[in-house]
């Protein structure tokens, strides 16, 4: 009995599964995202997400991700933790 096709199939499946585990999460545009999407960011819960939306509605769109620190309760560390996920396109 030839086990090569079974072994090759298992290696392929393992490779596919490990590549999905290391995939980067999707970027979030802080100028257009809703409360639920913003709450997906590290350190941002529903109340901070609502504060982001309220700030954006009152002051217009963010020019840079760093401007997120202008929202009460969001510090530089939170922005740093999410730097790869935040966009302002």
UniProtKB/TrEMBL annotation:
Signal peptide as annotated in the record: 1-23
Family matches, as Gene3D superfamilies: AF1531-like domain (1.10.150.280)
Pfam families hit by this protein: HHH_3 (PF12836)
GO molecular function, one term: DNA binding
The entry's keywords: DNA-binding, Signal
InterPro entries, alphabetized: Competence_ComEA_HhH (IPR004509), Endo/Exo/Phosphatase_dom_1 (IPR051675), Hlx-hairpin-Hlx_DNA-bd_motif (IPR003583), RuvA_2-like (IPR010994)
Domain called Helix-hairpin-helix DNA-binding motif class: residue spans: 36-55, 66-85
Electron transport is among the record's keywords: no
Keyword field contains Endoplasmic reticulum: no
Superkingdom per UniProt: Bacteria
Protein name: ComEA family DNA-binding protein
């Amino acid at each position: 009995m030839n086990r090569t096709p079974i072994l090759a199939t298992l290696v392929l499946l393992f490779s596919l599964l490990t590549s999905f585990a290391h995939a980067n999460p999707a970027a979030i545009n802080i100028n257009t995202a809703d409360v639920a999407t913003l709450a997906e960011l590290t350190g941002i819960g529903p109340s901070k997400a609502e504060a982001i939306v309220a700030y954006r509605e009152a002051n217009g769109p963010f020019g840079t991700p760093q401007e997120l620190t202008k929202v009460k309760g969001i510090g530089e560390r939170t922005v740093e933790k999410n730097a790869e996920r935040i966009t302002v396109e």
